Amino acid sequence: MPLSIGALTVLLSWVTVDLRTVTL
């Protein structure tokens, strides 16, 4: 299960970065 959680966290981090880049 930890692997799935890690993947979700990574995906969320990528999404947040994308949103930040778009806003900037």
Automatic annotation (TrEMBL):
It comes from the Eukaryota. This is Uncharacterized protein.
